[in-house]
Amino acid sequence: MRALTKEPEVITRGGKPVSVILPIKQYQEMLERLEDVEDIAWLKKARSKPLHYRPLADVLADLDKK
Question: Closest by alpha carbon to 2, among 17, 29, 21?
């Protein structure tokens, strides 16, 4: 059995990389960074659209209808 390392281990098949084994903490950090990137992309897209405001009275009237 191999000693635990902090470096990712690349699994190859026919000399080509097919998988990676990495520590769970590193995997979780990678997922968090990906979520952050998705959030930033969504925010940039949202900011590129013009803002539309409705009077509070209209919003409250719509809520009363529900």
Answer: 21
